[in-house]
TrEMBL record, chain A:
One GO BP: vesicle-mediated transport
Compositional bias per record (Low complexity), positions renumbered to this chain: 691-713
InterPro entries: AP3_beta, AP3B1/2_C, AP3B_C, AP_beta, ARM-like, ARM-type_fold, B-adaptin_app_sub_C, Clathrin/coatomer_adapt-like_N
Name used for this protein in its record: AP-3 complex subunit beta
Source organism of this protein record: Gadus morhua
Boundaries of every Beta-adaptin appendage C-terminal subdomain domain copy: 861-971
UniProt keyword list: Cytoplasmic vesicle, Golgi apparatus, Membrane, Phosphoprotein, Protein transport, Transport
KW Membrane (keyword) present: yes
Record-annotated AP-3 complex subunit beta C-terminal domain positions: 695-837
Function: Subunit of non-clathrin- and clathrin-associated adaptor protein complex 3 (AP-3) that plays a role in protein sorting in the late-Golgi/trans-Golgi network (TGN) and/or endosomes. The AP complexes mediate both the recruitment of clathrin to membranes and the recognition of sorting signals within the cytosolic tails of transmembrane cargo molecules. AP-3 appears to be involved in the sorting of a subset of transmembrane proteins targeted to lysosomes and lysosome-related organelles.
Coiled coil: none
Biased composition (Basic and acidic residues): 670-689
TrEMBL record, chain B:
UniProt xrefs under SUPFAM superfamilies: Second domain of Mu2 adaptin subunit (ap50) of ap2 adaptor, SNARE-like
Any Gene Ontology biological process: vesicle-mediated transport
Membrane-spanning ranges: none
Record family assignment: Belongs to the adaptor complexes medium subunit family.
Organism from which the protein derives: Gadus morhua
Record PANTHER family: AP COMPLEX SUBUNIT MU
Family annotation (CDD domains): AP3_Mu_N
Subcellular location field: Endomembrane system; Golgi apparatus; Cytoplasmic vesicle membrane
Function according to Swiss-Prot or TrEMBL: Part of the AP-3 complex, an adaptor-related complex which is not clathrin-associated. The complex is associated with the Golgi region as well as more peripheral structures. It facilitates the budding of vesicles from the Golgi membrane and may be directly involved in trafficking to lysosomes.
UniProt topology in membrane: Peripheral membrane protein
GO cellular component: clathrin adaptor complex; cytoplasmic vesicle membrane; Golgi apparatus
Stretches assigned to coiled coil: none
The protein's name: AP-3 complex subunit mu-1
Record keywords, A-Z: Cytoplasmic vesicle, Golgi apparatus, Membrane, Protein transport, Transport
């Protein structure tokens, strides 16, 4: 109606704007609107085949609507697939969606589209490459397996991490299409595992888990890198990596849970100290020492407990549960309790896991007991789980509080929950002997409750309790016998009958009377009750045959003709057993011993007992059964496998670079290494090398590599200075053949660090000498000139505390004495981690401390690189798209000449000039100091004083800042 | 990981399905429907179910079931968290998440789902990134689209910073640069009949609305960070700096996001802003009862209590209520047995009172349950924990942004059964 006419108007408006003479389309659209004439599919086909994009799009949207509703739209395949190469991005996207959905059913036609994707795989835009790979790998047509394989291999070496991530996803798709490709795919996985991008890490580990979870060996070399990258990986990847690393750790490290050895957090430090180490050896035969890699994992996952993503928090919690020394596990409690404020479904899963944990470790959750109190709005499954946990947490100290809480639950209007509470009270009563009588009395009181389910459940629980408490309880049995007539729930009736039968000698008067009543009502009872009547009769016959013989025979006769064969069986068996005749033989002599044998008490235990045989947080744990694809968590190895497998090879361990300044004591360092790694000499070198590479190659989390670097003696004496040993080679940290050139460029600008007025006579200025820092290539070198402007000598000038704590810096060696008016220049290194965030530290003298701060200009975070023009262009080609930023400026008058321009750029940023043939294009290249990422700058002069500045680098923040600074430097007068 | 997704409405119709791997027939949902039949309320359906060949993990939100099918071991929380993220994305895009809205925007929904998972593994779940690829519909754009035949799809491919900062797009530009932070706190308290606080805890979140040009790097510090007992962060926050210095250092996403949530364990320190005197009794005869409620201010630190709403969960037997309120209005829903008394602003000079009689179902026994009481309120410009933002600094960009911090509001749910009166305050 109204909308139709509106549409019509819109159409005509549209039509008039479009070219003349498409009346046919107009007509088509009409029919499309009103849905008459053609069959729906014919109409869509015509729309798809029209040459108007809006019609095609409209058709595709409707087709997507059909797919979403689960309707079959496969008939349209030929018409849709024709549009696969359409330029309109949305249309194309929708065609992709369709294609992926139906390719399996229309394999031959689907092949028509393949060449389009093969072409798109070569597109310069990374997003197009990625989406082509995504669709290509989602087409489940076996014939294109080789094409997919090739595409995956190529994309795995793509320079865009986003494309590489997509290729990791494609691995899994291909594997599920053709498992025979496994070996080839493992090769790709191996390659991608080496990838340093945080974007790729999660996806490739996911592929690893699906394709080759058994190939633990592929992880060794990447273990430390994964640990260090973890905090920067996207949330979903974190979950997968943490879960995989948990499994890995259980195969590679020894158990931290050894009995009698209390792991001391400080002995990480202690075992670098040879003295304490020796003492340890004397006193304990086999001291437990945590592998530093084990510690690395624990340390690097812990901050993730603060993640907003509940799955990440749970992943860390389970990691701690399965890997951490016992006393450290409670670190996760608070975070798990926090998850209980999340969505209902999250609560459900978290409570299941807490239920398992709380059986073994009450102490972990006891302080948070109130968090498990049931709210009336909780759904039943949450209530039950909370009840379970409260029961697990009950001990002598808190039982009265818990029982008081339980009393309110019993009154709940949710009767199933009230019944579960009674069960829980029963469990508390058996577990804590102090309260058994209190609980029993409480339960007996419940027998007069108005609600039948409550009464029935109480009977059942009392029955179990009486069995575990074989003392005098005839009063309770008598009480129950009196209530018997009022109780209608079969299970409860059966339980009372069993109790009377079992303890019939304690209630000799009541028992036969109950049997008499039962004989009357036998036929109308439920089966479960009938069985107990037969049992009761048999037991009474054996103990009190005088009063009950006839009754028993009567009941046995009723049972003989019962409709239920179980009851007939039981009756026949009992008759043979208790009534002696010639056929019954030897067995009836033992009837009394068989029927009235003391019975073992039922165990009242948690349904979550031993659930931690499944890795916590898994689906298998939630369901309490092994889900398909579940990977077992292995037991700790008795002896740790070779630790050196995790060392990463470094080509040039530059040992000869012994420090000239600083506090490092190489002799002692070697000694402690000896103690620590007690392996061959050669391996030691390896190990050292790996440390350097792991700490320098990883730009995102320099501080997290502290565990490995802390093994150098320097860290022991000065735990804050997380400087790895001086043997790192700055050449080796850049895998590419493009080397950083040392090409310092003046003029050197010096900045004030501390004014002598605020420094009580000490003044300090600093400048960037623009040289690579020898001791640690990822650090920016700084020279500080200290001047004593006072008339007293200054003593003990050194670096104090610094912040942020994650900051890595190399201290200058302390200046012991500075005479009045004298000055001295010291050099230090700071790892700015490729950011311009200020480094704050204390400059201290013997008497005073001064807070100072250095905020580097972005240009100082670079080191020049020498490239040929060809190399430059090649590298620039890899850093297009989002890795490119540019701006056009009008240059200040004096800056147009090549020499001046060159000077301006290079004084602003520490870049090397690339010699080019053009007069109008200037190129500069450098690498970031911390991570070694290439930074390429092009200044292209246009007409008049206009110029375009282009920065190519994958450090986007740096790029924008650098561009801004360059603009200023060149535009300013 | 996630194989398929089915969206199911309240009455059990599947109105949308999406498969990320091969197609799984709808019949798999039958196992779910079976469980749904058994459950008394939709909330009672177990979130994790097992069928002979598949596993079903579902969430129930906004009266819709989001049912995912998985075939092999996968952490259930991973799936649950993702499903909630889907709902939040829909809410973000369409303003709400309902069957109608999803059906009306089915193409956008499909595009979103396609973008959010690849082969069942999450690909892009950050709303910033998604919005760069798929524009959210607006009324204006819908009009334009209808007129021009174009769509809500970006014309050109995004140049987003996929590699470095996954939650922030590049090239953000504003003429007015602003950063607002709302500190929102809620108190959960259990108060016994005499008005004594049995236990109290404060939940807080910092909601941010950041509209800043370029790549700003922000640092937010607190006057009293020690108050915070337990925190969780948006991924943009640098964990290490928080650990070392107790400051929030982050490159913010563009637009609205939750920067952090926190918990303050305050035990006795919490000043409960209002009190409620309640007297609800039922006659022994079982024919009815009386109700008398009075609310009054307690410790409001000179601020006005607004939006005061008192909710009483009556026992099942209460048929109707005939009451008089001196201020505001009340409703009693005989189906849910919930009495809501909407008071509004609390005037300390004239305390609001609600009293009258309750009638019970004929023949019903005297109710055992003492009704639990739920209180919601608002106090502007007050964070009850006393948390104060110290300063906000920006690095990386030169302009001067406009900064603002508000301490505010919001209501939630909290209650407990039984003998004590439970109150939930939000300030």
């Amino acid at each position: 109606g109204v909308s139709g006419s509106l549409q019509h108007e819109l159409c005509s408006a549209d039509g008039s704007a479009a070219r003349q003479g498409d009346e046919r389309e107009e007509g088509l659209r009409e029919t499309a609107m009103y849905g008459c004439g053609f069959s729906a599919n014919d109409e869509l086909k015509e729309m798809l085949e029209s040459n108007k994009e809006s019609l095609k799009l409209e058709a595709m949207k409707r087709i997507i609507g059909l797919i979403a509703k689960g309707k079959n739209a496969s008939e349209l395949f030929p018409a849709v697939v024709k549009n696969v190469a359409n330029k309109n991005i949305e249309l194309k996207k929708l065609v992709y969606v369709y294609l992926v959905r139906y390719a399996e059913e229309q394999q031959d036609l689907a092949l028509l589209s393949i060449s389009t994707f093969q072409r798109a795989l070569k597109d310069p835009n990374q997003l197009i490459r990625a989406s082509a790979l995504r669709v290509l790998s989602s087409i489940r047509v076996p014939i294109i397996v080789p094409i997919m394989m090739l595409a995956i291999k190529e994309s795995a070496s793509d320079m865009s991490p986003y494309v590489r991530k997509t290729s990791a996803h494609a691995i899994q798709k291909l594997y599920s299409l053709d498992p025979e490709q496994r070996e080839h795919l493992i090769e790709v996985i191996e390659k991608l595992l080496k990838d340093k991008s945080t974007l790729v890490a999660g996806s490739v580990v996911m592929a690893f888990e699906e394709v080759c979870p058994d190939r633990i060996d592929l992880i060794h070399k990447n273990y430390r890198k994964l640990c260090n990258l973890l905090v920067d990986v996207e949330e979903w990847g974190q979950v997968v990596i943490i879960s995989m690393l948990t499994r890995y750790a259980r195969t590679q490290f020894t158990s931290p849970w050894q009995e009698g050895v209390s792991f001391d957090e400080n002995n990480e430090k202690a075992f670098y100290d040879s003295d304490s180490e020796e003492k340890r050896d004397e006193t304990e035969t086999k001291p437990y020492m945590m592998d530093p890699d084990h510690r690395l994992l624990l340390r690097n996952t812990k901050p993730l407990l603060q993640s907003r993503n509940t799955a990440v928090v749970m992943a860390v919690a389970q990691l701690y549960w399965h890997l951490a020394p016992t006393h450290e596990v409670s670190a996760v409690t608070k975070s798990l309790v926090r998850l209980l404020r999340s969505h209902r479904e999250v609560q459900y899963v978290v409570l299941q896991n807490i239920a398992t944990m709380s059986i073994q470790r009450k102490g972990m959750f006891e302080p948070y007991m109130k968090s498990f109190y049931v709210r009336s709005t909780d759904p039943t499954h949450i209530k039950t789980l909370k009840l379970e946990i409260l029961t697990n947490l009950a001990n002598e100290a808190n039982i009265s509080t818990i029982l008081r809480e339980f009393q309110t639950y019993v009154k709940s209007q949710d009767k199933a929950f009230a019944a579960a509470t009674i069960q829980a009270i029963g469990r508390c009563a058996t577990n804590i002997s102090e309260v058994t009588d209190t609980c029993l009395n409480g339960l007996v009181l419940l027998l007069s409750n108005r609600d039948e389910t409550v009464v029935a459940e109480s009977v059942v629980v009392i029955k179990k309790l009486l069995q575990t408490q074989p003392t005098q309880h005839s009063e309770i049995i008598k009480h129950m016998a009196k209530l018997f007539d009022k109780i209608t729930v079969a299970m409860a009736r059966a339980s009372i009958l069993w109790l009377i039968g079992e303890y019939c000698e304690r209630v000799p008067k009541i028992a036969p009377d109950v049997l008499r009543k039962m004989a009357k009502s036998f036929t109308s009872e439920e089966d479960i009750v009938k069985l107990q009547i037969v049992n009761l009769a048999a037991k009474l016959y054996l103990t009190n045959s005088k009063q009950t013989k006839l009754l028993t025979q009567y009941i046995l006769n009723l049972g003989k003709y019962d409709q239920n064969y179980d009851i007939r069986d039981r009756t026949r068996f009992i008759r043979q057993l208790i009534v002696p005749n010639e056929k019954s033989g030897a067995l009836s002599k033992y009837a009394r011993r068989i029927l009235l044998a003391p019975k073992p008490a039922p165990l009242l235990q948690s349904a979550f007992k031993d659930r931690d045989r499944y890795q916590l947080g898994t689906l298998s744990h939630s369901l309490n059964l092994k889900a398909s694809g579940y990977q077992e968590l292995s037991d700790w190895p008795a002896v740790a496998p070779d630790q050196s497998v995790r060392n990463v090879e470094v080509i040039e361990p530059v040992n000869e670079w012994v420090p000239t300044v600083g506090k490092s004591k190489p002799a002692k360092s070697a000694k402690s290494e000896d103690k620590f790694y007690s392996d061959s000499e050669g391996e030691q070198v390896d190990r050292k090398g790996s440390k350097n590479s792991s700490s320098s190659s990883n730009d995102s989390s320099s501080s997290s590599s502290s565990s490995s670097s802390s093994s150098s003696s320097e860290a022991v004496s000065e735990p804050l200075a997380l400087t790895p040993g001086p043997e790192a080679g700055f050449m080796t940290s850049h895998p590419s053949s493009l080397q950083v050139t040392v090409q310092p460029f003046g003029p050197v600008k010096s900045h004030e660090l501390l004014h002598h007025m605020s420094g009580k006579g000490l003044s300090a200025r600093y400048h960037f000498p623009r040289q690579p820092f020898l001791y640690q290539p990822s650090m920016v070198q700084l020279q500080i000139t200290l001047t004593n402007a006072s008339d007293q000598p200054l003593e003990g000038i050194h670096l104090g505390e610094h912040s942020p704590a994650s900051l890595t810096l190399h201290r200058f060696s302390p200046v012991e004495r500075l005479e009045p008016q004298a000055s001295v220049t010291v050099s230090m290194g700071i790892d700015f981690n490729d950011s311009t965030q200020a480094a704050n530290f204390q400059l201290c003298t013997k008497e005073a401390e001064f807070s100072v701060s250095i905020q580097p200009a972005v240009g100082e975070l670079l080191l020049p690189a020498s490239l040929t023009q060809a190399d430059f262009e090649k590298e620039q080609g890899k850093l297009l798209g989002m890795n490119e930023t540019s701006a056009t400026i009008t240059m200040a008058e004096g800056h147009c000449s090549s020499a001046v321009l060159n000077k301006q750029v290079r004084s602003m940023a520490n870049l090397g000039e690339v010699i080019t043939g053009h007069n109008n294009t200037h190129r500069f290249a450098g690498r970031t100091v911390s991570s070694g990422a290439l930074v390429l700058v092009t200044v292209e002069k246009r007409e008049a004083a206009d110029a375009t500045i282009t920065v190519n680098t994958d450090k986007s923040v740096m790029a924008s800042m650098l561009l801004r600074d360059l603009k200023q430097a060149l535009a300013s007068a | 990981m996630i194989h398929s997704l089915f969206l199911i409405n309240h009455s059990g119709d599947i109105f949308l399905e999406k498969h990320w791997k091969s197609v799984i027939g709808r019949s798999v949902c039958d196992y779910f429907f079976e469980a749904k039949e058994k459950a008394a309320e939709p909330e009672d359906v177990p979130p994790v179910l097992q069928t002979p060949h598949h596993y079903l993990i579902s969430i129930y939100r906004d009266r819709l079931f989001f049912l995912s099918v998985i075939q092999t071991e996968a952490p259930p929380l991973f799936v649950i968290e993702f499903l909630h993220r889907v709902v939040e994305t829909f809410q973000d895009y369409f303003g709400e998440c309902s069957e109608t809205v999803i059906k009306d925007n089915v193409v956008t929904v499909y595009e979103l789902l396609e973008e959010m998972l690849d082969n069942g593994f999450p690909l892009a779940t950050e709303s910033n990134i998604l919005k760069e690829m798929i524009r959210p519909p607006t009324i204006l754009r819908t009009m334009v689209n209808t007129l021009t035949g174009t769509s809500n799809f970006e014309e050109r491919l995004p140049s987003g910073q996929l590699s470095t900062i996954p939650w922030r797009r590049s090239g953000v530009k504003y003429t007015n640069n602003e950063a607002y932070f709302d500190v929102i706190e809620e108190i959960d308290a259990i108060v016994d009949k005499s008005g004594t606080t049995v236990c109290a805890e404060i939940q807080g979140v910092i909601e941010a609305c950041v509209k800043l040009t370029g790549m700003p790097d922000l640092t937010l510090s607190f006057m009293n960070p020690r108050l915070l007992d337990d925190v969780s962060f948006h991924p943009c926050v640098r964990f290490k700096r928080w650990e070392a210095e107790r400051v929030l250092s982050f490159i913010p996403p563009d637009g609205n996001f939750t920067l952090m949530s926190y918990h303050v364990n305050a035990q006795n320190l919490v000043a409960i802003p209002v009190y409620v005197k309640q007297n609800i009794s039922f006659f022994e005869s079982g024919s009815g009862g009386r109700l008398d409620l009075t609310a009054g201010p307690k410790q409001t630190m000179g601020k006005t209590v607004e939006g005061l709403v008192i909710t009483v969960h009556m026992p099942k037997a209460v048929l109707s209520a005939s009451l008089t309120a001196t201020q505001g209005s009340y409703t009693y829903d005989p189906a849910t047995k919930v009495l809501v008394w909407d008071i509004g602003r609390l005037n300390p000079q004239k305390l609001p009172n609600l009293r009258g009689s309750l009638s019970l179902q004929a023949g019903a026994p005297k109710p055992e349950d003492n009704p639990s009481i739920n209180i919601a309120l608002k106090i502007q410009q007050l964070a009850i924990s006393g948390l104060k933002v110290n300063r906000l600094d920006m690095y990386g960009e030169k302009y001067k942004p406009f900064k603002g911090v508000k301490y505010v509001t919001k209501a939630g749910k909290f209650q407990r059964p039984a003998c004590v009166a439970i109150s939930h305050f939000s300030t």
